[in-house]
Amino acid sequence: xxxxxxxxxxxxxxxxxxxxxxxxxxxxxxxxxxxxxxxxxxxxxxxxxxxxxxxxxxxxxxxxxxxxxxxxxxxxxxxxxxxxxxxxxxxxxxxxxxxxxxxxxxxxxxxxxxxxxxxxxxxxxxxxxxxxx
Length: 133
Prior knowledge:
Layout: H1 20-23, H2 32-45, H3 48-53, H4 57-60, H5 65-74, E1 75-87, E2 94-105, E3 108-121, E4 124-131
Antiparallel strand pairs: 1-2, 2-3, 3-4
């Protein structure tokens, strides 16, 4: 029996039917939370091109690919917890998600808690920036 790899995003589905479809370009996230989860999985999978592509277009030029890759590689990702979502549904144009991403870097445990702003342009959701809670 082949063991199915669970998606790192924590939604409870196998990777190949969860975030992989977004990473491979077969589908677009329909909600802000789906995009946030797929971005976390992209860090775990070191898919820096996906992280850049899902960043709000005006910020893509200044995206630090090497720094992002090094952060992804230096981390042992432990999990993602979604705390809250506000708007960001299929018919919305904007939404926010509060999450905690846990990792270990150089033997030190880290918790990144963030309230993220997401915007939709056309049919595609983008990460815009961190907001104050």
